Amino acid sequence: MILIACVDDGFGMMFNHRRQSQDRVLRDHIIALTSGKQLWMNHYSAKQFDGVAGQINTDDSCLSEAAPGDYCFVEDEDVTQYEQWIEKIILYKWNRKYPSDLKFGIPLKEHGWVLSRSTDFAGSSHDKITEEVYTR
Q1: What order do you get walking across the sheet with 129-135 strand by strand?
Q2: How far apart are CA 31 and CA 113, in angstroms?
Q3: Tell me: the pLDDT tens digits for 14-53?
Q4: Closest C-alpha among 2, 52, 48 to residue 21
Q5: Strand pairing report for 56-58 and 39-41
Q6: What is the mean pLDDT of the chain?
Q7: Cα–Cα distances in Å, from 69 out to 44, 88, 101, 126?
Q8: Which domains does the chain possess?
Q9: pTM here?
Q10: What is each CA distance from 80 to 96, 106, 123, 132, in whole angstroms?
Q11: How far is 99 from 96, CA to CA, in rounded Å?
């Protein structure tokens, strides 16, 4: 699977059982990126993608269901136990530090993940969102 997650500068993902932030332009970017492919997410994440039909598979076990080549957008789950099935990691960085109680748990460098591409773009709620793509 190709994992997609949003993180702050401290790799935080959630605070007090809520996403730290969300962005309309980023949602459109993810939909365009995954066009023609399977995009998995759980019910919590699917709420912010209302109105996008056909492309999103919603299942609370999405990390177990995603096949090789499928995309899986994760906001509120610890992904460390699924690392062996991850082919690529795409992180969207808010370029801010928010309070967090759930962090992205894969130690990228220590586990052999290499930053293969980094691109900045303007979001609707953030002046700069950084897309980082990691491969092994």
Answers
A1: 56-58, 39-41, 71-74, 2-7, 88-93, 129-135, 114-121
A2: 24
A3: 999 899 999 999 999 999 999 999 999 999 999 998 877 6
A4: 48
A5: parallel
A6: 95
A7: 22, 9, 30, 29
A8: 2-135 (3.40.430.10)
A9: 0.96
A10: 23, 6, 28, 18
A11: 10
